[in-house]
Design goal:
alpha/beta
Length: 414
């Protein structure tokens, strides 16, 4: 299960950790189904969190650390996006600007209205990580106010009654897929209910192997026009981190230590480089959510073909990096979960090498991010990623049976 990219060498870190510690009884929105068996994916109820679950035998490979030789000749690749048919096309920079990331409200309807013509819409939604389907859920208005159809994926017993109660109020045709998802179950569910391939909106927020699950759905030919994904806000560009799919049941215990989801650069590689979606918005703080203003850390993407129709190009990794640090500087530069050490603060050590003479902390960290992307600094960048996250992420895997699979690397310009 190696994640490949033409633009970044990857360090694959997958190891089983025998580490007995306290259990963080955190209920994530989704967790892994203990096996890959597909019985009835529509109503598949997961055992309570404290119920012992038999695990398949998993043998974790020895971690592999690949430090590229910076003296070797590097092949430069041209950014590419998908034409919607699984084939990649070259996207020249041209004179088209990137979208203004602060121009539109951070909600699905705003982005649909701004970029997707009415005649191109299917009025169909995938809500993956629905919780109760209403509270702080950006898909709720699409169902409740715009009567869209779609499917809600959820598996947390604490929100089950509320989810079904809320869905019953919708006028559109909305299915509920109940139970924790594995990739095979997600695909089987979508096929069983006859979900549309041409969909308007997809929300992915499961706090675990988000990138692997979304990659599977896209590879099956489902083509959303607007995507919102949760990012791991503690991991700055150019570090590529994504938790991997594995047949275990321990994802819910890792979040407080920072081992969850995918980093900003990982989402850029998957959605922008591999599937042609362009960033249109980012958030790491929501002042309207008074109980937990830093609980929202999302990236919003629109199909590149619709951006082009409106006179915009797909944002580059440099554009995305600029927006990442702008968002963090306007709120809080401290890490939420990955604090031992915190990559957000530690990256500024490269400011001098990047000739960042400004006293502005945002600019120092931005310059450091871009310094680590340069071809001549590949080894330095990889060592920084290992130092910041390798041991920290493995220590987050409390359960002895957890294969603790994740990938770690650097997005660079080579």
């Amino acid at each position: 299960m190696r994640f490949t990219s033409k633009t970044s060498p990857f360090l694959i870190v997958a190891s089983g950790i025998l580490f007995l510690g306290f259990s963080l009884n955190l209920e994530l929105f989704f967790a892994m189904e203990p096996t890959d068996e597909v019985e009835d994916p529509i109503f598949h109820v997961q055992a309570p969190f404290d119920t012992p679950v038999s695990q398949p035998s998993v043998i974790s490979p020895t971690p592999v650390q690949v430090i590229p030789d910076p003296t070797q000749e590097q092949t430069k690749t041209t950014p590419h996006v998908s034409n919607g048919n699984g084939k990649f096309i070259v996207v020249p920079g041209g004179d088209l600007p990137a979208p203004n990331f602060q121009e539109h409200g951070l909600n699905f309807w705003s982005f649909l209205e701004a970029y997707v013509p009415v005649e191109s819409r299917s009025n169909y939604v995938f809500n993956i990580g629905a919780r109760d389907g209403k509270d702080h859920d950006p898909t709720y208005d699409l169902f409740a106010l715009h009567n869209m159809d779609g499917v809600e994926f959820e598996g947390g017993d604490h929100v089950k009654d509320d989810l079904y109660r809320n869905v019953a109020m919708f006028k559109g045709d909305v299915e509920v897929s109940w139970g924790y998802l594995s990739q095979p179950i997600a695909v089987a569910t979508l096929k069983k209910i006859g979900a549309k391939k041409d969909i308007d909106v997809l929300k992915m927020d499961i706090g675990s192997y988000d990138a692997d699950l979304l990659e599977t759905i896209l590879a099956e030919g489902y083509h959303p026009k607007v995507i919102m994904v949760e990012m791991n806000p503690d991991i700055p560009p150019p570090i590529v981190f994504r938790q991997k799919y594995a047949t275990d049941n321990f994802y819910r215990k890792k979040v407080f230590a920072g081992n969850y989801g995918a980093s900003t650069s990982a989402w850029f590689e998957l959605l922008s480089e591999n599937y042609g979606y362009g960033l249109v918005g980012m958030e790491v703080f929501d002042k309207s959510y008074k109980e937990c203003p830093r609980c929202e850390h999302n990236m919003w993407f629109v199909d590149g073909s619709f951006l082009k129709q409106k006179g915009y190009r797909v944002a580059t990794h440099e554009d995305v990096t600029d927006e990442f640090w702008r968002c963090h500087y306007t709120t809080d530069l401290n890490c939420i979960h990955a604090t031992k050490p915190c990559p957000l603060g530690s990256i500024s050590r490269f400011a001098d090498s990047a000739q960042a003479t400004t006293k502005n902390e945002e600019q120092k960290r931005l310059a450091s991010s871009k310094f680590l992307m340069e071809c001549g600094n590949i080894a330095t960048a990889n060592n920084f990623a290992l130092e910041m996250l390798d041991a920290q992420m493995r220590a987050a895997c409390y359960a002895p049976e957890d294969p603790c699979a994740f990938e770690l690397g650097i997005h660079n310009q080579c």
